[in-house]
Write a structure and sequence with these properties.
The protein is of the alpha+beta class. Helices cover 49% and strands 13% of the residues. It contains 23 helices and 17 strands. Strands 9, 10, 11, 12, 13, 14, 15, 16 and 17 form a nine-stranded mixed beta sheet that branches. Strand 15 (389-390), helix 14 and strand 16 form a beta-alpha-beta unit. The radius of gyration is 28 Å and the shape is globular. 48% of the residues are buried. The model is unreliable at 414-422 (pLDDT under 50). The protein binds adenosine-5'-diphosphate and magnesium ion. Magnesium ion (MG) binds at residues 193, 320, 447.
Length: 698
């Protein structure tokens, strides 16, 4: 039997393959490109392309594609076969360095937010050698960045790579200030925990809402939901276990370090977490994971729902972005050290994150903004839309001691005098089980918990990296010019705590009192919806910060603003249209059919005896008739709102109209439909119920 170590990464052109397939010279120069970003020589590219093709063809590949992440949020690929005609009428399999390095997909149908007029449809893809090529089906996939001809990024990878570089640059300045000359670079590592639902394919097919929008737009509460808490970490059902086994195997072959899997809080909800890796690769891997999750589900007669809120009244799905900074020498900069000096460096990086999260709360909120995620944030199942940081008791006590210049005194520990040279040694507090914080320190990393399950993790990490780079830049500017390094360092740490402690909150984030305190007393931002937060992407301070670190150009930011809002509007409009359709053409007719049967029964009974005339059937006929009336009226109202929203000429106004009018009308249509479901005989109801969907996979 083949073991995991035999097949792990078998579909990846990874370091092992490169070492054995490339000459020592080519390998060395490719490594230099990968590790240090050196330009790639065309002769090296040719040699790599030839080796890649040989390897891929041997594994059964016939095509190659430049695999990229356009702003639609999913991945895109256009396949070209390796075949080239040979003079004798046959074909040979060819792949050149030029084809490896650069591609020119017809990009006119990818969103560009005005960056590229459609007549200039050409964009180009450029190989990202830092992420390994892999085989999917019969296609060699080459991870690439996607840009317009003017050089503007049309994808998520380009700004992500830029943000990593910005952070590296500023973090290296700090590392040097602390006297380390051996470290060559600082990278961020990410481990994203991915939640998802699994439901039965046959039931899915019967629900237009799931098919068109990925979530249920109707559905009465089932008799049993998640109230028994019996699903979280529960025994995995055989069909789900078979799915997970298959999924792991596929992911392992693709080099994805899938590590943990378990049932989540809601019935039919599960989670998969990989072992963390460099941000760029973690992002590629998370996209691959989401894709493979759906593909494997289809093989098992299942559908994997990645929507943030597939079922009302049941926990939705998120994604926890575990994030930290590490040097190429293997030091985690967010891990408390052993010596006071190491701890001073740790505290400085910690403060950089605290300052970044406070200064750029809006960017973090924006980075997770989608129509789907608006249903989760602040709904007592996910962190609120208010961004805050959880530090844990011990770190919090240390922070307070530094701020007040008082001795740090944890229970059972001796008092210590504070000063940079004698910052206390403290143990890692890994006891955090505060699940309500949007941004929690968990011992040696931060866990950003606001991401929606379908989000690309690129956006969150771009903003996080850029914001932290900005804090570090401010620190480095001061420290490099400081007369007395240690005094300045100490003062800076203290000032950061003083200025930004409002963002630190160790209590229950689901508590209404917290939102009150956060917004009224602390002045923290509370952007409830995508329409509320997105315009702030273009606030002066944000544009200045992001452009100064060369993460985005101003034009790129404007285009992202347009695209994100446009996507929000289209998503909700599709939902609204689906609702009108389902209500008018399926729900109301089903209720009417049942009413007809009830009425017939009533009249038959009446024929038997006058006394039985006005029984239960009559009452139900009345009730259901009133409901159908409400359904038709609400559907008309919603349709009117759809027309109104459709008349908006630009996305900002459209998103506001959706927030202020359309969402309420959608809700008004849902209420009578769900009520009718609870009163209508099962055999008439046109869709599988919540109970069937949530408990149907065994
Ligand atoms: P929990 O559910 O308790 O938060 P999990 O094991 O489900 O823990 O997920 C933790 C995630 O954090 C994993 O993906 C893990 O690889 C990742 N992780 C651990 N250490 C780091 C680190 N230094 N940097 C980034 N991610 C990390
Ligand atoms: Mg976690």
């Amino acid at each position: 039997m083949k073991t995991v170590t035999d097949f792990f990464g078998s579909k990846v052109f990874d370091d092992r393959v490169m070492k054995s397939a490339l000459s020592a010279k080519v390998y060395k120069s490719l490594k230099k490109t990968i590790d240090e970003g050196e330009d790639l020589d065309i002769s090296v590219a040719n040699a790599v392309a030839a080796a890649m093709k040989e390897w891929a063809v041997q594994k059964g590949a016939t095509h190659y594609t430049h695999w990229f992440q356009p702003l639609t949020g999913i991945t895109a690929e256009k396949h070209d076969s390796f075949i080239t005609p040979s003079p004798d009428g046959g074909v040979i399999m060819e792949f050149s360095g030029k084809e490896l390095i650069k591609g020119e997909p017809d990009a006119s149908s990818f969103p560009s937010g005005g960056l590229r007029a459609t007549f200039e449809a050409r964009g180009y893809t450029a190989w990202d050698p830092t992420s390994y090529a892999f085989i999917k089906g019969k296609t060699l996939c080459i991870p690439t960045a996607f840009c317009s001809y003017g050089g503007e990024a049309l994808d998520k990878k380009t700004p992500l790579l830029r943000s990593m570089e910005a952070l590296n640059k500023q973090a290296m300045r700090i590392i040097r200030l602390f006297g380390d000359d051996t470290v060559k670079c600082v990278r961020t590592s990410v481990g994203p925990e991915q939640e998802y639902f699994l439901i039965d394919r046959k039931m899915y097919d019967k629900r237009p809402d799931l098919v068109f929008t990925g979530r249920t737009l109707f559905g009465a509460k089932p008799p049993k939901g998640q109230e028994m808490d019996d699903h979280y970490f529960g025994v995995i059902k055989p069909r789900v276990a078979a799915y997970m086994e298959d999924l792991n195997e596929e992911l392992w072959k693709l080099g994805v370090l899938a590590k943990t899997e378990h049932n989540e809080v809601a019935p039919a909800q599960h989670e998969l977490a990989p072992i963390y890796t460099t941000t760029n690769i973690a992002t590629d891997h998370n996209q691959i994971t989401m894709e493979i999750m759906q593909k494997v589900a289809a093989r098992h007669g299942l559908v994997c729902l990645l929507h943030e809120k597939p079922f009302a009244g049941v926990n939705g799905s998120g994604k926890h972005n575990n994030w930290s900074l590490a040097t190429d020498t293997g030091v985690n900069l967010l891990s408390p050290g052993k010596t006071p000096y190491e701890n001073a460096q740790f505290l400085l990086f910690l403060c950089a994150v605290i300052k970044a999260v406070d200064d750029y709360q809006d960017l973090l909120r924006i980075s997770v903004a989608t129509a789907g995620n608006d249903h989760r944030l602040g709904a007592n199942e996910a962190p609120p839309a208010v961004v805050s940081i959880f530090l844990g008791d011990e770190l919090n006590a240390i922070m307070e001691a530094i701020e007040n210049g008082t001795p740090y005194n944890a229970a059972g520990k001796t008092k210590m005098k504070l000063g940079v040279n004698v910052l206390p040694e403290f143990t890692r507090d890994t006891t955090d089980r505060n699940r309500t914080s949007p941004f929690a320190f968990t011992g040696n990393k931060f866990e950003f918990r606001m991401l929606g399950s379908s989000n690309s993790i690129a956006c969150a990490n771009i903003m996080l990296n850029a914001a932290v780079a900005e804090s570090l830049k401010i620190y480095a500017d001061r420290l490099e010019n400081a007369e007395d390094f240690e005094t300045t360092l100490h003062e800076m740490i203290r000032k950061t705590i003083k200025d930004h402690k409002r963002i630190i909150f160790n209590g229950n984030g689901y508590d209404d009192a917290w939102i009150e305190e956060a917004t009224k007393k602390r002045g923290l931002l509370n952007y409830r919806t995508t329409a509320d937060c997105l315009p702030h992407l273009l606030d002066k301070k944000n544009v200045e910060m992001l452009t100064s670190h060369k993460v985005f150009s101003e034009a790129e930011l404007k285009s992202r603003y347009e695209i994100t809002l446009d996507n929000y509007c289209k998503t909700v409009m599709i939902e609204a249209n689906t609702m009108v359709d389902m209500a008018r053409c399926e729900i109301a007719p089903a209720v009417e059919a049942y009413v007809k049967e009830l009425a017939r029964t009533a009249s038959l009974k009446k024929a038997v005896s006058e006394e039985m005339a006005c029984g239960y059937e009559c009452r139900l006929v009345k009730k259901l008739s009133l409901l159908t009336e409400r359904i038709f009226m609400a559907a008309d109202e919603l349709e009117k709102a759809i027309v109104e929203v459709g008349q908006c000429s630009e996305v900002t106004g459209e998103s506001e109209a959706i927030r202020d009018i359309l969402l309420a009308k959608m809700n008004e249509l849902r209420v009578p439909c769900d009520e009718a479901e609870t009163l209508t005989a099962k055999k008439y109801w046109p869709f599988p119920t919540y109970g069937e969907l949530l408990f149907g996979v065994r």
